[in-house]
């Protein structure tokens, strides 16, 4: 789909851009520390094929936690509702995304939801296949279909950078393995998970994926049902309850858009039945959400009545 630069959207971006200086780029994955904290761009896709944008939308970024939504949709389609939710819960935590504390204090060491790292690792564990390569290809194929872009791939430098430093995620995996929630080799799972998180795209691709979720799984161009309506609804519900980590409640009140963020500074939004949003703004707040991206969404939600509540 062609995407038009939009003057009105540009003004909203200019307003929100002043907040980039309140945040910092993530550095715990060293490769992400190279991002320019002043960047802010957005694309919005509409069901009729229109697309508008502002900022440098050719810049690519890795999905990081946004990949959790795509992986969840994939395993729900492949394994079914019961299989998935026997192994991961449906409740928000109110804890940071990489917290280990609930695994120990819950009766069963089952992660509370698939949007925190512990739950996402369990979801990635459910991606079936003989090798990491085969499992990653399944996820990439699905991601390419959602974005309508065959060129999408993962960024090997970002994946390697996270693989070298992902000791907290390894700790989560060992805990989960001790309780038989996962059964595979931890290094293999971390290899797949870090490659999944390093799937790379630009705002246009991300907005297109947001639109597919907004349209309950229907491809806006072909009309094809890419994922069942029920799967898209589950994913959107998780985006509302847990998509912005432990800022999800405030985000729902102030903005009211199902959304998922990642520590690279991406935010995917899906306004039900109306539009898909892709934002890139790598300066993050202390909870790991794009500072300017959130301000931009708040501003847009108020200006165009985008809240679903
Ligand atoms: N790959 C990152 C991690 O596991 C994703 C976290 C995030 O985007 N919040 O730490």
Overview of the structural elements:
The protein is an alpha+beta fold. It has two domains: 4-62 and 201-303, 3-Layer(aba) Sandwich (Beta-lactamase), CATH 3.40.710; 65-197, Probable Glutaminase Ybgj, Chain: A, domain 2. 46% of the residues lie in helices and 11% in strands. The chain has 13 helices and nine strands. The chain has helices at 7-17, 67-79, 81-87, 101-105, 117-125, 132-147, 156-165, 167-178, 186-197, 203-214, 229-242, 248-254, 291-304; strands spanning 4-5, 41-45, 51-54, 61-62, 153-154, 199-201, 259-261, 266-271, 275-280. The strands form two sheets. Strands 1-3-2-9-8-7 form a six-stranded mixed sheet. Strand 2 and strand 3 form a beta hairpin. Helix 1 packs across helix 13, helix 5 crosses helix 9 (186-197) and helix 7 (156-165) packs across helix 9 (186-197). The longest helix has 16 residues, at 132-147. The chain is globular. The model has no long low-confidence stretch (mean pLDDT 95). Bound molecules: glutamine. Glutamine binds at residues 64-65, 97-98, 117, 162, 169, 197, 262-263, 288.
Give a short summary of the structure.
The chain has 309 residues and is of the alpha+beta class. The two termini are 30 Å apart.
Blueprint of the fold:
Blueprint: E1 4-5, H1 7-17, E2 41-45, E3 51-54, E4 61-62, H2 67-79, H3 81-87, H4 101-105, H5 117-125, H6 132-147, E5 153-154, H7 156-165, H8 167-178, H9 186-197, E6 199-201, H10 203-214, H11 229-242, H12 248-254, E7 259-261, E8 266-271, E9 275-280, H13 291-304
Parallel strand pairs: 1-3
Antiparallel strand pairs: 2-3, 2-9, 4-6, 5-6, 7-8, 8-9
Helix pairs in contact: 1-13, 2-3, 2-11, 5-8, 5-9, 6-9, 7-9, 8-9, 11-12
The chain binds glutamine.
